[in-house]
Design a protein that fits this description.
Structural class of chain B: alpha+beta
Distance between the termini of chain A: 35 Å
Strand content of chain B: 5-15%
Helix content of chain A: under 10%
Strand order of the largest sheet of chain A: 1-2-3-4-5-6-7-8-9-10-11-12
Shape of chain A: globular
Number of helices of chain A: 1
Order of helices and strands of chain A: HEEEEEEEEEEEE
Structural class of chain A: mainly beta
Oligomer: heterodimer
Strand order of the largest sheet of chain B: 8-7-9-10-11
CATH superfamily of chain A: monomeric porin ompg
Number of domains of chain A: 1
Largest sheet of chain B: 5 strands, antiparallel
Radius of gyration of chain A: 17 Å
CATH architecture of chain A: Beta Barrel
Radius of gyration of chain B: 23 Å
Largest sheet of chain A: 12 strands, antiparallel, barrel
């Protein structure tokens, strides 16, 4: 894997952490569908889930690029699911001059929920991710541990706090090996009390840049998840980096669409 | 349990057995002054799962039938709306909005019932406060609702044969009971006991309109099973055209029910075939009522409400009754009274019922073992499927023969549904009666044997056949009917049988036992 490809892998992991989660309910929120935060709920025990989602990316000062993600999930135990997925890119990208199609990352993850929300106690989960370069062109892996807390804000709306720690096991020159980050997500059913198949999402993201001494990157995102059949959900969303150092490659806008299927 | 028919009982001049065990105590409890100290304590050594803090979502059993209820789209949508209605009411009860239940919340629910959602909503997202407060209860409800949904999916499947459907329903039951510790008991429970708690009736008295909706949902959730069971998709749609109209026009808005609709009162055929499932659904619905009553009892402190809801879950849980058998009764408090009505293992003991007779809404005292038209014993065991049923005015009754069913329906108001078995258990005749009593069927080539005699043998001289050939084969094998002619459907539809000389009007030990509650309530109001 080329260095330029790694420049894509790293921001991809941070800006849009491996979206290796899925959902079949419009109100079950998983990273990547369409924003970057998770809620604290695992998919059901014995459930299979698949999701796919293209994204149009508008890198700062460049032409449009495309990302494609696909993931498979399984509820391996009560309150626990595991997942595996890939990400591919084509066209312009923020941190590379490469434009050809490439499968950038493959990853696995596990999410463990510790409790449901009760009283004033949020639901807590922890999620671990490991992402690898599929062609073996780079040593090591990107590891991420994410702590997740979800709780009601007023009544129907919920807050989801995700706190991330990313470790690059074999950092290259000028690359951070340890990066903290956090996402605050907000969800609210749309159309209630007359419709019950749509959820709106907002998020604010702050994370350390992947480049040493490049400061932090802040992003905003908004999206909608719409149940379209008993087993499937479509989602759309946009994300934009609102504050980033010029030394940190970033995207002006990312437009995401996706489809999730439970079976 | 030895079956004793009501007719024999009367003929021998036998006295009615004493009323259901412990009823006097139950009614004295109901009349007692509501006070937290009157509440029963939590049993000792409750299982840990009752105090669980995990989500514990389990995926439904996989099968080609899942979501086939959408083959009958109107029914599927009505079921979706039911989920919304339950959740909205619970959320109002736990968020201090109970005062608007009968007005604003009712109107909100009503709008959804009139505009049912296309897809099943996630109840947890409609009642998040309720879920945070009573998470284990939500688990119990959700898991049993999944069994509800999947059994309906199986029945609505066009891929499975009827015998495969029977097998799959049993497989669903095993999946339901073996996957979680919090399954509902399949045993018949004493409704006298469960509805005789210090808080019982509170919700019904305070919020009659919303309670009417709840019981309307439960009516639909029960009635639809016989509407789907052993029927083609076309027949199912015909039946739901009638049931759905009645649900929306009448059943949702009734505030005069004496008790929640029981499964065996509205789906006796399914209940006989799967009494364990029918009992579990009745017990689930009773748990709904108990929770409603607890939440509506302002005199119960919040912390105590949580304890009483845990206790209510425990009372109807399978674990609390492990090793016990249908028909048995143990202890003296009624919790382990699993006796059931003779002829109906899916009907626990009701108020002032004996095992022979019970009081049924709109029907009065009746026996579930005997034909309500001719009072003769209904077929049992392997022959139980041979009894026709009539659905009218909100109830479904088994009859002994097609003519009994026809004449029983003629005495009812509004549209009626007949399910008339033929020579083939899987080829029933579905007949719809309109408001004027005009009959139509999906099998106009069906023929009948009608050689009217005494009702002691009506199950022999009145029969339906899916074809002329089946009729001929039946008659050829029975010399006593050698002169019988096949009666075509339209001619049969105009028949009127003689009044059965075997008919005996059942008389219970009291009048309407549910008037007791009304009297108690009136007296309390006067006292105040």
């Amino acid at each position: 894997m080329t260095k330029r490809a790694w420049w894509i892998l790293v921001p991809a992991l941070v800006l849009s952490p491996p979206r290796f989660a899925a959902a079949v309910d419009h109100n079950n929120i998983d990273a990547g569908r369409p924003l970057t935060f998770d809620d604290a709920e695992a998919i059901a025990f014995r459930e299979f889930s698949g999701e796919v989602g293209p994204a149009l990316v508008f890198p700062d000062g460049k032409s449009t690029g495309i990302e494609l993600e696909a993931e498979f999930l399984y509820g391996i135990a009560l309150n626990t699911h595991v997942g595996a997925g890939i990400e591919a890119v084509a066209g312009d990208r923020a941190d590379s001059e490469e434009t050809s199609f490439a499968v950038e990352t493959m990853g696995i993850n596990v999410l463990r929920n510790f409790n449901r929300e009760y009283g004033n106690v949020p639901a807590f989960s922890i999620r671990g991710d490991a992402a690898f370069a599929p062609d073996g062109s780079r040593k090591g892996a990107e590891l991420r541990v994410r702590g997740i807390a979800s709780r009601a804000l007023v009544q129907y709306d919920r807050l989801h706090l995700n706190v991330d720690v990313i470790v690059v096991t074999s950092p290259e020159d000028g690359e951070r090996s340890f990066r903290p980050g956090a996402v605050l997500g907000y969800t609210r059913p749309l159309g209630y009390p007359r419709r019950f198949d749509r959820t709106g999402l907002l998020e604010v993201t702050v994370h350390a840049s992947s480049t040493e001494d490049a400061g932090a990157v802040a992003s905003l995102g908004a999206g909608v998840r719409q149940q379209i059949t008993v087993r499937s959900v479509v989602d759309v969303g946009i994300r934009t980096d609102i504050a980033a150092s010029q030394r940190e490659p970033h995207d002006d806008l990312t437009s995401v669409a996706g489809y999730s299927l439970g079976f | 349990m030895k079956r004793v028919s009501l007719v024999c009982c009367l003929a021998l001049g036998a006295a009615f057995p004493p009323p259901c065990f412990g009823q006097a105590e139950m009614h004295s409890r109901m009349a007692a002054v509501a006070h937290p100290e009157s509440l029963p304590p939590l049993p000792n050594s409750l299982p840990n799962w009752l105090y669980g803090r995990k989500k514990n979502h389990i995926f439904y059993k996989r099968g080609p039938y899942n979501f086939d209820l959408y083959n009958i789209d109107r029914l599927a949508r009505d079921m979706n709306a039911v989920a919304v209605g339950h959740a909205m009411a619970y959320e109002a009860l736990v968020t201090g909005k109970a005062d608007s239940l009968e007005t604003q919340i009712f109107e909100r629910i009503h709008w959804v019932l009139e505009h049912p959602p296309r897809l099943m909503p996630d109840e947890a997202s409609i009642s998040p406060t309720f879920g945070r407060t009573y998470g284990v209860l939500e688990e119990v409800f959700d898991w049993t609702h999944i069994l509800h949904a999947q059994t309906m999916d199986v029945l609505a499947s066009t891929d499975l044969s009827d015998s495969e459907k029977d097998q799959e329903i049993e497989a669903l039951w095993r999946y339901y009971t073996e996957s979680v510790p919090y399954a509902i008991t399949p045993l018949p429970m004493s409704m006298v006991f469960l509805d005789g708690q210090p808080y019982s009736m509170a919700f019904r008295d305070k919020y009659p309109k919303v309670n009417g909706l709840f019981w309307g949902y439960h009516w639909l959730q029960g009635a639809v099973y016989d509407g789907l069971y052993v029927k083609s998709l076309r027949q199912q749609k015909m039946v739901y055209d009638v049931l759905g109209d009645r649900y929306h026009a009448t059943e949702l808005y009734r505030t005069d029910r004496p008790f929640m609709p029981m499964f065996a009162e509205v789906s006796p055929r399914f209940s006989l075939k799967f009494p364990h499932i029918a009992n579990a659904f009745d017990n689930l619905h009773m748990l709904h009522d108990m929770v409603n009553d607890i939440l509506a009892s302002d005199w119960i402190p919040t912390a105590e409400k949580e304890r009483q809801i845990l206790r209510a879950i425990w009372l109807v849980s399978a674990e609390a009754h492990r090793g016990e058998e249908p028909g048995q009764s143990r202890g003296d408090d009624g919790m382990h009274d699993h006796r059931h009505m003779l002829g109906m293992p899916a009907m626990g003991m009701m108020k002032f019922a004996t095992e022979e007779i019970m009081y049924m809404d709109k029907m009065g005292w009746m026996s579930m073992a005997d034909c309500h038209h001719c009072s003769m014993p209904l077929p049992e065991g392997a022959d139980a499927w041979k009894a026709p049923t009539v659905s009218a005015e909100g109830w479904t009754m088994r009859a002994r023969c097609p003519l009994c069913a026809r004449d029983m329906a003629a005495e009812t108001r509004g549209r009626a549904i007949f399910h008339i078995p033929t020579e083939d258990a899987f080829k029933p005749l579905v007949v719809i009666s309109d408001d004027q009593g005009n009959l139509t069927t999906d099998r106009p080539d069906a023929v009948f044997l009608e050689q009217e005699g005494g009702h002691e043998t009506c199950q022999k001289w009145s029969s339906a056949f899916s074809s002329r050939a089946a009729f001929d084969a039946h008659v050829a094998a029975r010399p006593e009917f050698k002169n019988a002619r096949p009666v075509p459907f339209q001619e049969w539809a105009d028949l009127r049988g003689k009044k059965p000389n075997t008919y005996v009007k059942p008389e219970g030990p009291e009048g309407n036992p549910y008037d007791k509650h009304d009297e108690d309530t009136d007296e309390d109001e006067v006292d105040e």
